[in-house]
Design brief:
The chain is of the alpha+beta class and 102 residues long. The chain is built from three helices and three strands; from the N terminus they run ββαααβ. It has a three-stranded antiparallel beta sheet. The C terminus is likely disordered. This is DUF982 domain-containing protein.
């Protein structure tokens, strides 16, 4: 199954207890990260994160809810996290604003 990329407006920088660092910008990236070598797979927040990310990728849950469950799984796993600068919204009609057009 091919999923649409569900990008968050504010990416997260994650420092896992094993010393690895990741920048996570979407539900897709969060789900991939928790599925591959997550430091704590026995927790309730981890389970909720997996379920909600999968539901979001299948169009059954909002990406924002999956983000909140991912944050909870990070905290449960002892990761340190911080929000990065928000990503500007993408233009969908093929036009873009430019400071050169005044």
């Amino acid at each position: 199954m091919i999923y649409t990329e569900l990008i968050w407006s504010t990416p997260l920088h994650i420092n896992l207890p094993n010393g690895k660092e990741h920048t996570v910008s979407s539900v897709n990236e969060a789900f991939a990260l928790v599925q591959d070598g997550w430091p704590r797979i026995d927790g309730e927040q981890y389970r909720q994160c997996c379920l909600t990310c999968r539901a979001a990728l299948n169009g059954r849950a909002p990406a924002a809810v999956a983000r909140e469950h991912f944050i909870a799984a990070c905290l449960e796993a002892g990761a340190k996290l911080s929000a990065l600068s928000p990503v500007p919204p993408r233009v969908t009609d093929g036009t873009a604003f430019s400071s050169q057009h005044k």
